[in-house]
């Protein structure tokens, strides 16, 4: 059979056709009909049939060109910084603290290595920023490590990268929300018992904002981001001009966690401190994953955003580490390192509370990074048949709505499971992103070797060193956090890859059944029989028969009857009225010993198919479409019951005609 061009591994499938007045399907949802196929950066919808009584619609597919309205729903570089960098920015609240807490095991001598470890992390940050700038240029359709691995490392490795990113994004939402709420409950202890409800309320707020579009979320979070960055930079700048802490009120009365009588720092401890501090690098990949969300030229704007993110994050991390050494800060129980630094630099005054409040807000809102990056990644996976195609569809505001809702649902489950406790989730955090970093940079090494552009060896060396460092960090973090919950990630990551593979195989089977990539047989006309279930006479019945005689060579109306005293009058009235109306269509009564409506009709259609094997049978089900949404509660759902029975038990096509009831108008 002749071959036709077909996007690789992308089977066609019917889209959601709820908006159509007449919807024709085959059992199983794989019959001829409209085609919805997610494409790069958007969705493509093929021909759909709309047949409202009294109106005709063209079935020609249309493609909406890029417009100013579309551009308004995409990000500028500044908006991208606000929408996609919150995770990375907020990590300065716990990144330096993670380093200090590990080095505290070596006493005051160990704390002296805070700045060297931070400089090593900053160097890795520079490598990652440079690498992801190249990723953005090479893969402008987004996807980050998934896109790189798919091109250069093979399908299975790309799925591991995608799974690691999915896990990281989902955990980022849960960790960010719980961290922000933890800061709130620390300030107001009376709210501690309500932390789960508060976490869910914050999640609902962030989800609602993102459903309005990524640009709206960027605008909403631009001010909190600016306040946080400004507060941290001000604190660093002021602290550099001080020779001693202005205040130590926050740490007074709290027990120190510094080890006693330790005078040596081992290489393993430094490696563990480095790996723990690398939690500050989570979120660096988000910009590369969401390149299609930027305005044109998208790649250039995304690169600027990536550089700005790296510069701000590096300055804040190094600045805070310098202050830790300058003030000889020691970690204490119950008080964050950032709070101690704010106290020491700015004093225990209004400025101190501004820093704390800005940190609390940004931690809670850092979940927005996942809402900006994960739906785009899910759209790419859907395009490649590793997730349901519905995740590739976009709403009017360029929102991957189903991806946003799926992310919110899974994050809500995690919040409930953890009881709103940040410490339950933190051990699971950041492992996935290190796996993604390592795969991405390994793939970029192969990219440079294949491309052999000017100075490719230096670029490949840079990515190779980065892959080595992030790979070691991933192993160290997994090993040190394994018993604290990291084992869940070790199990969840391969399971997620298996889910991707299962979805892909399902789409492959559907494609084989549909014969995708092959020219179908030439169309041939067959005798057509349309069966119309009716229960009474009305305008709806008339419209149904009008549509039926237009569609088929032969039309049969059927009604299910029940031989009970309470049902006989209605049956006799319908028989009498039908004879009086005389529409030229036979009314066939289907007796039923039970109250079932769908099974007798399905049995009749099965009998017709057996007696007339060459006949195309269509069951046209008339339904009233209420003028108001609440009026759907008044419907008996008879049409849905009949459609389900026919779809389950026969191969007949199902055509549901929606007769729209116009709102009642008042005249004077």
UniProtKB/TrEMBL annotation:
GO terms for cellular component: membrane. Gene3D superfamilies: Amino acid/polyamine transporter I (1.20.1740.10). One of its GO terms (molecular function) is transmembrane transporter activity. Pfam families: AA_permease_2 (PF13520). Residues 22-38 have a biased composition (Low complexity). Keywords: Membrane, Transmembrane, Transmembrane helix. Residues 1-71 are annotated as: Disordered. Signal peptide: none annotated. It is a multi-pass membrane protein. It is found in: Membrane. The chain crosses the membrane at residues 100-129, 159-183, 195-214, 221-244, 264-287, 307-329, 349-382, 403-420, 426-448, 460-479, 485-503. It comes from the Bacteria. The keyword Membrane applies. This is Putative amino acid permease. The lineage of its organism: Bacteria, Bacillati, Actinomycetota, Actinomycetes, Kitasatosporales.
């Amino acid at each position: 059979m002749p071959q036709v061009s077909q996007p690789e591994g992308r089977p066609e499938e019917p889209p959601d056709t709820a908006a159509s007045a007449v919807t024709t399907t085959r059992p199983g949802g794989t019959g001829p009909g409209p085609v919805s196929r997610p494409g790069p950066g958007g969705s493509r919808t093929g021909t759909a049939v709309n047949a409202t009584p009294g109106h005709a619609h063209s079935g020609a597919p249309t493609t909406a060109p890029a417009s100013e309205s579309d551009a308004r729903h995409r990000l500028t570089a500044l908006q991208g910084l606000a929408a996609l960098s919150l995770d990375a920015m907020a990590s300065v609240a716990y990144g330096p603290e993670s380093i200090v807490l590990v080095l505290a095991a070596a006493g005051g001598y160990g704390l002296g290595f805070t700045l060297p470890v931070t400089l090593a992390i900053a160097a890795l940050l520079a490598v990652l920023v440079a690498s992801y700038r190249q990723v953005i240029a090479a893969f402008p359709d987004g996807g980050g490590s998934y896109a790189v691995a798919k091109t250069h490392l093979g399908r299975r490795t790309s799925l591991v990268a995608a799974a690691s990113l999915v896990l990281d994004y989902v955990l980022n939402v849960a960790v960010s929300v719980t961290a922000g709420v933890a800061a709130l409950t620390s300030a107001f202890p009376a709210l501690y018992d309500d932390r789960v409800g508060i976490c869910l309320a914050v999640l609902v707020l962030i989800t609602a904002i993102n459903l309005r579009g990524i640009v709206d979320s960027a605008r909403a979070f631009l001010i909190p981001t600016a306040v946080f960055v400004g507060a941290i930079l001000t604190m660093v700048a002021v602290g550099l001009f001080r020779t001693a802490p202005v205040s130590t009120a926050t740490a007074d009365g709290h027990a120190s966690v510094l080890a006693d009588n330790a005078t040596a720092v081992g290489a393993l401890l430094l490696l563990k401190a480095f790996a723990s501090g690398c939690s500050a690098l989570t979120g660096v990949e988000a910009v590369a994953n969401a390149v299609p969300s930027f305005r044109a030229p998208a790649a250039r704007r995304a690169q600027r955003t990536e550089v700005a993110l790296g510069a701000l994050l590096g300055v804040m991390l190094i600045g805070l580490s310098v202050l830790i050494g300058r003030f000889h800060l020691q970690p204490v129980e119950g008080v964050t390192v950032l709070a101690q630094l704010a106290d020491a630099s700015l004093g225990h005054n209004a400025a101190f509370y501004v820093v704390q409040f800005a940190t609390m807000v940004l931690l809670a809102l850092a979940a927005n990074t996942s809402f900006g990056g994960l739906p785009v990644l899910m759209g790419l996976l859907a395009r490649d048949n590793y997730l349901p195609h519905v995740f590739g569809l976009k709403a009017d505001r360029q929102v991957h709505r189903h991806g946003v809702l799926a992310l919110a649902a899974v994050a809500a489950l995690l919040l409930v499971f953890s009881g709103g406790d940040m410490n339950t989730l933190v051990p699971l955090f950041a492992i996935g992103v290190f796996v993604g970093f390592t795969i991405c940079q390994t793939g970029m090494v192969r990219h440079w070797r294949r491309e052999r552009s000017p100075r490719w060896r230096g670029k490949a060396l840079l990515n190779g060193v980065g892959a080595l460092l992030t790979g070691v960090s991933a192993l160290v973090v997994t090993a040190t956090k394994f018993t604290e919950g990291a084992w869940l990630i070790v199990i969840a990551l391969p399971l997620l890859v298996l889910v991707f593979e299962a979805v892909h195989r399902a789409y492959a089977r559907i494609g084989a059944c549909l014969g995708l990539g092959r020219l179908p047989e030439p169309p041939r006309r067959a005798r057509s029989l349309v069966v119309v279930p009716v229960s009474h006479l009305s305008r709806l019945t008339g419209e149904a028969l009008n549509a039926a005689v237009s569609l088929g060579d032969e039309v049969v109306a059927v009604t299910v009857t029940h031989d009970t005293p309470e049902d006989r009058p209605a049956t006799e009235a319908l028989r009498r009225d039908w004879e009086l109306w005389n529409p030229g269509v036979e009314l066939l009564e289907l007796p039923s010993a039970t109250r079932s409506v769908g099974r007798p009709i399905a049995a009749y259609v099965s009998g017709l198919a057996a007696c007339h094997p060459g006949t195309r049978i269509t069951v046209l089900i008339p339904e009233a479409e209420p003028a108001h949404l609440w009026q759907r509660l008044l419907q008996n759902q008879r049409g849905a019951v009949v459609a389900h029975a026919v779809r389950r038990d026969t191969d007949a096509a199902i055509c549901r005609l929606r007769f729209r009831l116009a709102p009642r108008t008042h005249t004077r």
